[in-house]
Write a structure and sequence with these properties.
Strand order of the largest sheet: 7-6-5-8-9-12
Helix content: 25-40%
Largest sheet: 6 strands, mixed
Distance between the termini: 28 Å
Number of strands: 12
Low-confidence stretches: 30-45
Structural class: alpha/beta
Shape: globular
Strand content: 15-25%
Number of helices: 10
């Protein structure tokens, strides 16, 4: 794409992200989807705030036996039931991929811009709900985390770094992490257990070791995978030759060649299917987002 350097298609401004606050008012972390069971009921696409232990009291008729507090029961000799209360807040942690490959689009907006917009919407939703919001920005050579905090200033600090990532290149707390596995491993020590964790990325470099880190994250947090992709990554035009590069490796694909065209499409589908399967196995939410999509609509689905 050939846009001016300050084009909203290719770059992010703080005003752009701040202006999304109003759009986020109508969003919620609870999206209904049909339960994949014969019961035909509904579950929340985004799991709720969760429940935390409040107290134990004597068992009463009708109490769920699964809530029996066996330790207190054994100590007192009388059956006690655990009482839970809804968590008043939960940390929302938003990890945003801003690596070099994200600065691309054949149609719509850059993947990096889409990722920033979605991150901003989620940060504003957290603020409107009174949740603590923090995050992570990761690049090819460095990575930065922000501890979840309450208040509008915490959101603005996060958005300012999204809009001005150059500030992080020389930040004292920046660290060199060049691959997805290292980024996910770092998340394990920064995202508090029970956090609602959003990972917004094109998931380039999703190695088996990186998949293992995802599984560990899903064991402790409610994880939402937001897969950003460009239509050209999904399929090539019907004709022409295209050269792709990664590091020092070059590959030329002839779209006129049916087998190469099919292999190209299959490669994308395999990656998407892998993410979907991982999400299903680990009780994560998977949301694919094209660079041509409306970010607000994608989060409402």
């Amino acid at each position: 794409m050939n846009h001016a350097t300050d084009s909203p298609y290719t770059t992010v401004s703080l005003k752009m992200l701040v202006d999304l606050a109003r759009s986020a008012v109508g969003l919620t972390f609870h999206h209904s989807v049909i339960r994949a069971k014969q019961s035909g009921g509904y579950i929340s696409r985004f799991k709720g705030r969760g429940m935390e232990f409040d107290q134990a009291r004597l068992y009463q008729a009708g109490d769920d036996i699964r809530s029996i507090d066996w330790r207190v029961t054994a100590r007192t000799g009388k059956t006690h039931t655990k009482i839970f209360r809804e968590e008043r807040e939960r940390p929302v942690f938003i990890s945003v991929d801003q690596r070099h490959a994200m600065h691309f689009a054949s149609r719509g907006i850059f993947k990096s811009v889409m990722a920033a917009k979605i991150a901003a919407l989620l940060a504003w939703v957290a603020h409107h709900h009174g949740d603590r919001c923090g995050g992570q920005l990761f690049f090819d050579t460095h990575c930065k985390e922000l501890k979840p905090q309450n208040g509008k200033q915490a959101v603005l600090h996060f958005l300012n770094l999204l809009a001005h990532p150059a500030q992080l290149a020389t930040a004292p707390s920046s660290n060199e992490y060049a691959d997805l596995e290292s980024v996910l491993h770092r998340l394990l020590s920064h995202a508090r257990p029970s956090s609602l964790l959003y990972l917004i990325s094109d998931f380039r470099g999703l190695t088996p070791h990186a998949q293992l880190q995802l599984a560990k994250l899903a064991a402790h947090c409610e994880v939402v995978l937001i897969f950003i992709y460009d239509p050209l990554e999904e399929s090539l035009p019907n004709s022409g030759c295209y050269q792709f590069t990664q590091n020092n490796h070059y590959v030329t694909i002839n779209a006129n060649h049916a087998e190469q065209q099919k292999a190209y499409k299959d490669h994308f589908l395999e990656k998407k299917q892998l993410l979907q399967t991982l999400a299903k196995q680990r009780s994560m939410v998977f949301i694919p987002v094209s660079t041509q999509a409306d970010p607000l609509t994608c989060l409402k689905m």
